[in-house]
Amino acid sequence: MERRISIYLTNLGKYVEGCLMGEWVKLPVDKDKLQDVLDRIGIDGQQYEEYFISDYEALLGNLHISEYSSIQELNELAERLEGLADPDYEKLAAVLECESSMSIAGVLDIIDELDNFDLLEDVADDEALAAYYIDNGYIFCDVPDNIKTYLDLQRLGRDIRLESNICYTSYGTVVDNR
Predict the structure, then answer these.
(1) What is the pLDDT of residues 40-89, one digit of tens each?
(2) Strand, helix or coil at 48?
(3) DSSP reduced 3-state for 119
(4) Domain assignment present for 99
(5) Within-domain flag for 123
(6) Of 84, 107, 140, which one is at a domain's C-terminal end?
(7) Segments forming the whole domain that contains residue 144
(8) What is the pLDDT of residues 124-160, one digit of tens each?
(9) By C-alpha distance, which of 123, 111, 110 is closest to 168?
(10) CB burial class (10 A; 0-12, 13-18, 19+) of residue 108?
(11) What is the DSSP letter of 81?
(12) How many whole angstroms separate alpha carbon 91 and alpha carbon 73?
């Protein structure tokens, strides 16, 4: 799974003057390469001191990057994403799908707490959730199959979901155990 964050850095002074002067930067980026980009877009520290992020591409859903997001924080996030194993990256993507919008700091916090989330990849609805909970002994230990047919798994799963911190995503079901 590709883990890319790219930002388009734009010279604010030139932008105000009506000239779009900017460049795409793939993160993480080291200090020297970032300085090279700033030099190329005309950030000289005197006449043109400020830059902003005018566009971004992040394959991580619901990540919010603003015009003045910290490049240091974005770099840290990009480095942490590169260091995640594929299952953890998918779990992170699923958790973020449950959120409406996440700040960079919020995503970093979620990465630190990934062990507190379970991703049930084969559970997609309330009925499957109830069956999972029964089959794994979380409720009604050792229920014979002939008795399971009498249970309303749809309603039971709905109740489990409403009483717990559970969210259905395109990756599977996220259980927030925090």
Answers:
(1) 999 998 999 999 999 999 878 778 899 999 999 999 999 999 999 999 99
(2) coil
(3) strand
(4) no
(5) yes
(6) 84
(7) 117-176
(8) 999 999 999 988 888 877 777 788 788 899 999 999 9
(9) 123
(10) middle
(11) H
(12) 21
Task: Name the CA radius of gyration of the chain, rounded.
Answer: 22
Angle value at C-alpha 100, between 113 and 132, nearest 5 degrees: 60
The tokens of 169 are what? 């995503």
Helix, strand, coil proportions of the chain in percent (round to 5)?
45, 20, 35
Q: How far apart are the first and last CA of the chain?
A: 26
Alpha helices in the chain (DSSP H): 12-16, 31-40, 71-83, 86-97, 104-112, 126-135, 145-148, 153-163
Distance, in Å, from the CA atom of 60 to the CA atom of 81, rounded to the nearest integer, reads 10
Domain assignment of residue 135, yes or no:
yes
* H or E segment to which residue 27 belongs: strand 22-27
**What is this structure's pTM?**
0.82
Q: Return the bridge partners of 99, or none.
A: none
**The residue to which tokens 């379970």 are assigned:** 118
Among 84, 102, 136, give the residue marking a domain's end: 84
Cis peptide before 28 (omega within 30 of 0): yes
Per DSSP bridges, beta strands 22-27 and 5-11 are antiparallel
How many separate domains does the chain show? Answer: 2
Query: Could you tell me if residue 15 is inside a domain?
Result: yes
Residue 147: give its domain's CATH number: 1.10.10.1190
